Amino acid sequence: MPVETSESFRSGFVTLVGRPNAGKSTLVNAIMGKKIAITSNTAQTTRHRFRAVLTREGFQLILVDTPGLHKPHDALGEELNTSALKALEDVDVVAFLVDASKPVGTGDEWVAAQLSRARSKKVLVLSKIDLVDDAELDRQRFAAARLGDWDAVVELSSTTGEHVQDFIDTVVALLPEGPSWFPADMETDQPIDVVVAEFIREKILRSFRDEVPHAIGVRVEEMGYDRKKDLHRIYAVVYVERDSQKGIIIGRQGAAIKQVGTEARLDLEQLLGTRVFLDLSVKVKKNWRRDANQIRRFGYGEGA
Ligand SMILES: Nc1nc2c(ncn2[C@@H]2O[C@H](COP(=O)(O)OP(=O)(O)OP(=O)(O)O)[C@@H](O)[C@H]2O)c(=O)[nH]1
Questions:
Q1: What is the DSSP string of the chain?
Q2: Which residues contact 112 (CB under 8 A, 6 or more apart)?
Q3: Which residues are annotated as part of the binding site for GTP?
Q4: How far apart are CA 220 and CA 104, in angstroms?
Q5: 239-268 in b/e burial notation, b at 16+ Cβ within 10 A?
Q6: Is the minimum distance from the CB of 66 to ligand 1 under 6 angstroms?
Q7: pLDDT band for position 301 (50/70/90)?
Q8: Of 149, 166, 235, 253, which alpha carbon lies 20 to 30 A from 108's?
C-alpha cells in the first residue's frame, strides 16, 4: 500500500570547529540572528558543548559550538579537548572555520588532521572576509582548500552577514532527511542560568583581557522573576584564583565591577526581555582551574 509521504524535512547536528578566535561563536549568533553564544577577543572563550537550534520551514539545524581544538595546558584544556573531539563524532556536518585574515598555519593543519577522522560531511568556511581584499582571499582560498577534502566551501562574514544565509543553505542541503529533534520554538538547550553566567563572564573577559585571562568562573547563585515588576533578580558570584585578581575585578571603590555589572545587565535585559537587577560579588577560590571536579561544579566541561 502506498504510504503517504510528507514534505521532506531535513534535520541534523552541525559542529563548528577551528582555531581559537576563528569566529565560531560569532557565526552561531549570525545564524541565529541574535546573541546566544558569547564572543571575545580572548582565545578559548567557549567552554561548553553549546547547542543552538535553528528551526525553519523544511529543516531543523542543531549547532554544536565546540571549544577550540587545543593542545591542553592544564586540566581545563584537557576537558575542552576531549569534549571537542567527542563533538566531532556523530554529527552530520562539520564546518571548519579558517580565519581569512590570518595566514593558514600549523594550528589549522592540526585541526584539519583531527577532522579527517570524522565521517561527517565537511564544509570549509573562510570567515571574516570583510577583513581582506580579493587577492588575499584568493591566497587563503587556495591554502585552506588544500587542508582536506571538502563537500562544500563557503566564504562569509558574520559581522556584515554576507553569505551567512548561503552557509545555512549549504549545510541544510548536506543534512539527512529526519524529524524535528527539538520543539520549534527552542533555541538553546543550555539552562538559562548557564547562559546568564556566560554573558557575565564575557563582559569580564572583555574588560580585563590581560589581567585575568582565564582565571575566572561565574556561577549564578540565585535567579528569580518578579512578575509584578517584570524584573529578573540575579545574584551571581565571580570566582578568581588570587586576591590580586579580586582587587582588579572590583576596582577602585568598586568602579570596575560596577561597570561590568552595567554592561552585563544591558545584555541580560535583551536576552530575558525584562528589566534585570544584577548583584555581582567576587570570591577567591585558589587553583579552581586545576581541579577537574571543580571545573564540573562550575558547569564547564562534560556532564555539567
Ligand atoms: N571583522 C570580523 N570580525 C569577526 C568576524 N567573526 C568574528 N569576528 C571577531 O573575531 C573574534 C573571535 O570571534 P569568536 O566568535 O569569539 O571566535 P571563536 O572561534 O568562537 O573563539 P573561541 O571561543 O576562542 O574558540 C571576535 O572579536 C569577533 O568579533 C567577522 O566576520 N568579521
A1: -PPPPPPP-EEEEEEEEESTTSSHHHHHHHHHTS--S---SSS----S-EEEEEEETTEEEEEEEPPP----SSHHHHHHHHHHHHHHTT-SEEEEEEETTS---HHHHHHHHHHTT--SEEEEEEE-GGGS-HHHHHHHHHHHHTTS--SEEEE--TTT-TTHHHHHHHHHHHSPB---SS-TT--B-S-HHHHHHHHHHHHHHHHTTTTSSS-EEEEEEEEEEETTTTEEEEEEEEEESSHHHHHHHH-GGGHHHHHHHHHHHHHHHHHHTSEEEEEEEEEE-TTTTT-HHHHHHTT-STT-
A2: 96, 147, 148
A3: 18-25, 65-69, 127-130
A4: 39
A5: bbbeeebbebbbeeeeebbeebbebbbebb
A6: no
A7: very low
A8: 166
pTM value is 0.69
Q: Please say if the pLDDT value at position 43 is more than 60.
A: no
Domain ranges for the chain, please list them: 10-174, 192-297
131 lines ligand 1 (CB under 6 A): yes
Distance separating alpha carbons of residues 235 and 221, to the nearest angstrom: 6
Q: 47, 69, 177: which is closest to 118 by C-alpha?
A: 69
Phi and psi torsions of 280, nearest 5°: -115, 130
Q: Whose CA is nearest to atom 4 of ligand 1?
A: 128
Instruction: State pLDDT tens for residues 134-161.
Output: 999 999 999 999 999 999 999 999 999 9
Q: Which CATH superfamily is domain 192-297 in?
A: K homology (KH) domain (3.30.300.20)
For ligand 1, atom 27, the nearest C-alpha belongs to 41
